[in-house]
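Page 42, continued from yesterday. The earlier attempt failed because a stray header line got pasted into the input along with the sequence. Redoing it now with the clean sequence only.
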Amino acid sequence: MGATVEFPPDSNLANSLTLQPEAERLQAVLEGAIAYCPALAQGEITERWFGLRPRPQGQAAPVIQPLLGYSNIWLATGHYRNGVLLAPATALAMVEHLT
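This time it went through. Structure tokens are written below.
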């Protein structure tokens, strides 16, 4: 529950892969969720996970193009944090490319 975008001071991808979530921030997100929906306080946390959002490195997002070496496989990926918002436009772009 919850999502943020954090850019470390050194935005090197390799360094970003070693980042770990901060317990205080996780607790703050949990407390906010419980304030919104008190029944969540009765739930059990079985796993805490975080990861990088799919964002292309060195090119614009999203990636809408054929897979390198194939003319019959198209990619529509790397929408970063805007996947839900860009889904209709991505679908229209794919229709144009595929028809």
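Notes: The radius of gyration is 18 Å.
Reminder to self: strip header lines before submitting.
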